[in-house]
Design brief:
Number of strands: 11
Structural class: alpha+beta
Number of domains: 2
Shape: elongated
Helix content: 10-25%
CATH architecture of the largest domain: Beta Barrel
GO molecular function: proton-transporting ATPase activity, rotational mechanism
Keywords: Ion transport, Transport
Radius of gyration: 25 Å
CATH class of the largest domain: Mainly Beta
Strand content: 25-35%
Distance between the termini: 71 Å
Pfam family, one: ATP-synt_ab_N
InterPro entries: ATPase_F1/V1/A1_a/bsu_N (IPR004100), P-loop_NTPase (IPR027417), V-ATPase_su_B/beta (IPR022879)
Protein name: ATPase F1/V1/A1 complex alpha/beta subunit N-terminal domain-containing protein
Amino acid sequence: MGTTFKINCKAALRDYTLHPRISYQTVTSISGPLVVLDKVKFSRYNEIVHLYLENGDVRMGQVLESRGTTAIVQVFEGTSSIGVQSTRVEFSGKSLRIPVSEDMQGRIFDGSGKPIDNGPPMGFIFELQTTDLEDVHAGSPINPYSRIYPQEMIQTGISAIDTMSSIARGQKLPIFSVNKYSHNAAANVSVGCWAST
């Protein structure tokens, strides 16, 4: 087997617990909040990255797309003053995680888990005293095929609804009407029909 194959296998089987960070200085383009990196190996969707700028600033981003050796990263704090040649990007091997505690109740946070309600600081993601971290993307996506098939259909008395988009009990449905016909009147007709079934 070739040397390149061995290197790729070693990187794919890397134990991110012991060696979590991989660094690259291969930014090829910047477009709005997105940074495109090339010659990147085994980046993962939703992986958190840290961008080290020439002026010493550190910004955080997330891998939005990983195709072959190219990774597209969304920078959370914006891409101003990011240099194509000088920016070093470090892949963390982890998805976004936030601290979870009772102190979070009633607080307001941004998408990165930082408080934005002018309350006391909670401690940043990577400087925590707690081990209770929850993955933001935890759980499996909703599978519409695993839901219970609707059995109880409702007749509204409005032929357009009954024939074109029948309604099952418990289902949500937007109610549209023409300009001169009140939305409330359409809703009242629907509710009246549902109540009688």
